[in-house]
TrEMBL record:
Family annotation (PROSITE patterns): MFS, SUGAR_TRANSPORT_1, SUGAR_TRANSPORT_2
PANTHER family listed in its UniProt record: HEXOSE TRANSPORTER PROTEIN (AFU_ORTHOLOGUE AFUA_8G04480) (PTHR48022:SF24), PLASTIDIC GLUCOSE TRANSPORTER 4 (PTHR48022)
Membrane topology: Multi-pass membrane protein
A GO cellular-component term linked to this record: membrane
Transferase keyword on record: no
Family under the similarity heading: Belongs to the major facilitator superfamily. Sugar transporter (TC 2.A.1.1) family.
Membrane-spanning parts: 112-130, 136-158, 291-313, 333-351, 358-379, 385-405, 426-446, 458-477
Any matching Pfam family: Sugar_tr
Keyword annotations: Membrane, Transmembrane, Transmembrane helix, Transport
InterPro entries per UniProt: MFS_dom (IPR020846), MFS_sugar_transport-like (IPR005828), MFS_Sugar_Transporters (IPR050360), MFS_trans_sf (IPR036259), Sugar/inositol_transpt (IPR003663), Sugar_transporter_CS (IPR005829)
Residues in Major facilitator superfamily (MFS) profile domain copies: 42-481
Listed GO MF terms: carbohydrate:proton symporter activity
Protein name as catalogued: Major facilitator superfamily (MFS) profile domain-containing protein
Length: 518
């Protein structure tokens, strides 16, 4: 078994084995391995969770273009439109008060089912709405259920996925929002031809249930998190899950032995330190650093100008002179195809390129695109929107911005899971979810007001925010590439954490058939 010199927890050089040293070399692609293929198919119940989020924003864009929706709800604008748009965000914020407790008590699997049921109730209310209040209430329930799902799913993926596929799966999970956006954009494009019928907006509302029905069905079959099982004194079950899905049934696998040893050591250490209180985030320098990352990355990925395009595309297109309804719907579809392609493409490169480079390059690209968009929109407005070249350039920048957004976005869920220790992981996603929801609530109210008040000049605000985001990533976000969840602790707790060290004499014990502890 390979060993290598690495910096120990106390800053000295030690012989330590990393997880990448014990991952077996495989000559075939993952779908040729039956257990791994089954695991990845079951993890679809987590992967599709962001479809609801993406669908929601794109559906609202589409509904604001459909005349029957505007007439039914008396042409909502200003604060009323802000309340409607933010209905799901209010629900997501509410879910944060219960998500951590549900995940810590019932595991990662059951909260997915609970969230799905609540979301489906919200879809029923939204579809059957007879007034604005009922429509908003349905959206609040959708957000509440989706908030529980969005907290549980990335944790289950991070703790259950095969080590070399963890970041790719969490990245793809994030990019499924683009699939949801594309579905909603296509559906609202089609239902717009239903004319004055309320089904032109009720049908898109009803179809928002699709992904949650799939999640609910698969949640009964996906395995539970091995780390949660070990933490709750069900080690044999955890051992069987890892043996089946990570080692293809090979009970002598070095990877299986390594993973169980790391989980045992990390959870025993955290239990000894009683890492259960919310105040634990502020007890050590390492945890304060973690808290800063978990909180700021939620704002960072939502405060970059994306909300202008995702929720208020109509206003943005009008600001660059594109007012035709059919053209706006077509562009909405194109933007979401663009996002889905680049989201999945960049997800496959996270493990190769690293987290910091993906985040920094994504933010840099977004800044450049938004800066050019700001300049050419100003030029176009001064020409009374008769400058076709400026309009075409503005539209191109919207697509380029979307591509770079999908370079940075898929990194976030896996990065939050990686920087957080086991007992703070559920709380980390609650904090991250709060930041995400708070940022979106602000966007929901501020963006339409800002665009209405100062037009294209409002884009300058987001250029400045993007610059500050780049500074945050450069100075405060460490790289976690190639490390297991337990190994990332070395980046934060050099003075406290413990490595699992193996002396050459232990090799025979490691190579011997592994039996689960009783």
């Amino acid at each position: 078994m390979k060993t290598q010199d690495t910096e120990g927890w106390n800053g000295t050089s030690t012989e330590a084995t990393l997880i990448r040293d014990v991952i077996p070399k495989r000559t075939k692609l993952w779908w040729h391995y039956p257990a791994l293929r089954t695991l990845n198919l079951l993890l679809i119940c987590c992967i599709v969770t962001d479809i609801t989020n993406g669908y929601d924003g794109s559906m609202l864009n589409g509904l604001q273009i459909i005349d029957s929706w505007k007439e039914f709800f008396n042409h909502p604008s200003g604060s009323i439109l802000g309340v409607i748009s933010n209905g799901t965000r209010f629900g997501q914020i509410g879910s944060l008060f219960v998500s951590a407790a549900l995940i810590e008590k019932f595991g990662r699997r059951r909260p997915i089912a609970i969230g799905s049921v609540i979301l489906l109730l919200g879809v029923i209310l939204q579809t059957a709405a007879v007034n604005t209040t009922m429509f908003v209430l349905g959206r609040v329930l959708i957000g509440f259920g989706n908030g529980i799902q969005a907290t549980a799913c990335p944790i289950l993926v991070a703790e259950l996925a095969y080590p070399t596929q963890r970041t790719q799966i969490t990245g793809i999970m994030n990019s499924t929002g683009s699939l949801g956006s594309l579905l909603a954009a296509t559906i609202t494009f089609g239902t717009a031809y239903l004319g004055s019928s309320t089904w032109s907006w009720r049908l898109p509302s009803l179809l928002q249930a699709m992904s949650s029905i799939l999640q609910l069905a698969l949640s009964f079959y996906v395995p539970e998190s091995p780390r949660w099982l070990v933490h709750n004194n069900r080690r044999d079950e955890a051992w069987k899950i890892l043996a089946k899905y990570h080692a293809e049934g090979d009970e002598s696998s070095e990877l299986l032995k390594f993973e169980m040893d790391e989980i045992d050591a990390a959870i025993e250490r955290e239990k000894a330190q009683s890492l259960t209180s919310w105040m634990e985030w502020f007890r050590t320098t390492g945890n304060r650093h973690r808290f800063f990352i978990v909180l700021t990355i939620g704002f960072l990925i939502q405060w970059c100008g994306n909300a202008l395009i995702s929720y208020y595309l109509t206003l943005v297109l009008k600001s660059i002179g594109i007012t035709d309804t059919r053209t706006q719907l077509t562009i909405n579809v194109g933007i979401n195809i663009n996002g889905m392609f680049f989201g999945n493409f960049f997800s496959l490169w996270i493990e190769r390129v690293g987290r910091r480079p993906m985040l920094f390059m994504g933010l840099t690209g977004m800044f450049c695109a938004f800066l050019i968009l700001t300049v050419v929109t100003g030029i176009n407005q001064n020409a009374d929107f008769h400058n076709s070249a400026a309009s075409q350039t503005s539209l191109a920048m919207i697509f380029i911005f979307g591509a770079f957004y999908k370079m940075a976005g898929p990194v976030c869920p896996s990065y939050v899971a990686e920087v957080s220790p086991y007992d703070l992981r559920a709380k980390a996603f609650v904090i991250n979810g709060f930041a995400d929801a708070a940022a979106n609530v602000f966007n929901g109210f501020a963006n339409p007001v800002g665009l209405t008040a100062i037009g294209w000049k409002y884009y300058i605000v987001w250029c400045c925010v993007l610059l500050s985001n780049m500074v945050l990533v450069y100075f405060f976000y460490p790289e976690t590439k190639g490390l297991s969840l337990e190994e990332v602790a070395i980046k934060f707790d050099k003075d406290q954490a413990e490595t699992i060290q193996r002396e050459p004499a232990e090799k025979e014990a490691i190579d011997a058939p592994l039996e689960p502890k009783q």
